[in-house]
């Protein structure tokens, strides 16, 4: 299934991240954490598909994606930055394996936090955030996505860590075995992972080596 939808507005989030609010086709449903393949409805771009996660609530009147643009190479996310109200995107069938299984720790690398946005917003809206924790690694403090919103969520514990911002007062550690030992003492819980593929692969191994049950680790397969 393919459908072309109009962009209603774009909203800045960081220096290279935007919300894209779109028309919602009738009967187009998803569960928090799911995604679809998106392309730009312009000549030379319609066949260039990229996966993006829905970041709105599942019962919202409009659809939303929260997308980081990479300006260092010509590609879909760079072209998306040129779009605005009235332009169109092509959506396809919904898919995705990151679904909420119960309270736990969400670990994200950079834009890998996006599959968690709708999940955490939905838990917040339904009063079920207690017992959940978000650990997000970014390069600098200005790269943190939705910092104010996450920190304002009642019941969500948040830990930011940075990899290249020595002037920031936030934690300056990479998420490795030592980090998990120091900051994630409870391994008997659910874990949700998303980020660059090498990071997710390493974290799965590190969690297993530390004693976590691999059956409690969820990632995009």
From TrEMBL:
Domain of life of the native organism: Bacteria
Domain FAD-binding FR-type stretches: 1-101
Keywords assigned by UniProt, alphabetized: 2Fe-2S, FAD, Flavoprotein, Iron, Iron-sulfur, Metal-binding, Oxidoreductase
GO MF term (any one): metal ion binding
Cross-referenced Pfam families: NAD_binding_1
InterPro entries: FAD-bd_FR_type, FNR_nucleotide-bd, MRET, OxRdtase_FAD/NAD-bd, Riboflavin_synthase-like_b-brl
Names of the cofactor(s): FAD
Stretches of the chain forming a coiled coil according to its record: none
PANTHER family per the UniProt record, alphabetical: NADH OXIDOREDUCTASE HCR
Record-given protein name: FAD-binding FR-type domain-containing protein
Species this chain originates from: Devosia subaequoris
